[in-house]
Write a structure and sequence with these properties.
Two copies of one chain form a homodimer.
Chain A (H helix, E strand, L loop, with lengths): L3 H12 L2 E2 H12 L7 H13 L3 E4 L15 H12 L10 E4 L1 H12 L7 H9 L6 H26 L6 H39 L1
Antiparallel strand pairs in A: 1-3, 2-3
The structure holds a DNA duplex.
DNA sequence: GTCATCATGTAAGCCGTTACATGATTGC
DNA sequence: GCAATCATGTAACGGCTTACATGATGAC
């Protein structure tokens, strides 16, 4: 139904409102992935999320003018016009998006949904947004990722020991193995942090 | 013109003939990438390469051993024989593909072509096939990759120091940085190997 | 005799990019 | 006045996956 980009956008909007143009930079700077997602992906995604009622477009309340922030939708048009005619701050009619209550709900569901949790890009995105998950969902996510990596490590080690590989191909395989080991160490570190947090919480509750 | 999968397939065929079904496993086992490329990609790619005359189908008729064409490559002949001799007869009419002289030329050109050498998947593929490159082309490839990684490392370190990141998002960024560092160490290691090989060659030539 | 594996191919569709189209604002 | 950046959107296109269609062979 909704894909990775939708989750990423909702995740950004959980924090604060954004307009489309801004989302591109934020995706790189705050969520790590993707060297510049194109606008051809972002704007349609926003439109779709709006159609499903997970986000809504609000007026660009610009810092200088301010006080325009009366949320009525009928005022939106007028405000955009006034922003345009008024020289100075307001750029071209920005459409600032805000996540709805329904969107917040759906976001947490999507984020913890174990379906399509295959590749590392996907996982990194979810981890970067993990503060919106409950501790137990976080641990579940981490454990699932851990078992995937263990399987992957075994596979890549078998490949690395393939006798018929030349030194370059073997080097690639060995490096792939080291990459998976690094990922695994990271996950284990995150897991132990989660567990010690849970323990200290349990102690407090006593 | 030709894409990554084409290079990968040609690379496999440089070694020995393959049929389509077999290529899928080999892509994983020998070239590392892609958890199973689908046949919907492989067969059309083979057909296209054949249209351009880079490969040709040498139909392995279900018939028994022998009847083998100009076996310039002894290893290839041996592998085909072993495929047929073990069980009763060959399976369904396999189409075994062989790389042509033109294909070998084009392969080296594509492999050393610096265009579209962006992502790590692409680079890993090229490195896995690096034995088909000249030493200087290999060094060029490695140096280009190195400078990309240096730039990437700087970028991701800036992201990791972003004050507004929560601990999870920061952890993702820091882990990304460690990943790039690992890649970089690998490249540097490969580069020094290349250089010491060149030196020992130079000594011999003296 | 039917299931798993081997084997080849086509068609539909998804997801994302590039290219196109438009326009405001800022700074030189 | 002109370029660069900010800003939004649509349309065409490409690559890869899924699903579909077909069929041989070997194992149990």
């Amino acid at each position: 139904m909704f894909d990775v980009l939708d989750i990423a956008i909702l995740g950004l909007l959980m924090d604060r409102d954004h307009h489309g143009y801004e989302i591109r930079t934020q995706l790189r700077e705050r969520l790590g992935l993707w060297a510049n997602v194109s606008f051809g992906s972002i704007y349609p995604a926003l439109a779709r999320l709006a159609r499903y009622g997970l986000v809504e477009a609000v007026v660009a309340s610009d810092a200088r003018i301010g006080s325009l922030s009366t949320g009525s939708l009928s005022g939106e048009r007028a405000s955009l016009r006034s922003l345009r005619s008024a020289p100075g701050i307001g750029r071209r009619g920005r459409k600032v998006y805000r996540i709805t209550a329904k969107g917040r709900e759906e976001f947490v569901t999507l984020l913890s949904d174990p379906a399509t949790l295959d590749d590392s890009k996907n996982f990194s995105l979810r981890m970067a947004l993990a503060k919106y998950l409950t501790p137990s969902l976080r641990v579940g996510l981490l454990e699932r990722r851990r078992s995937d990596l263990v399987a992957r490590l075994a596979e890549v080690r078998v490949s690395a020991h393939n006798e018929q590989l030349d030194s370059y191909a073997r080097s690639v395989m060995e490096h792939a193995a080291r990459g998976v080991e690094l990922d695994l160490a990271w996950i284990d570190n995150l897991l132990s942090t989660e567990r010690s947090n849970q323990q200290s919480f349990a102690r407090e509750a006593k």
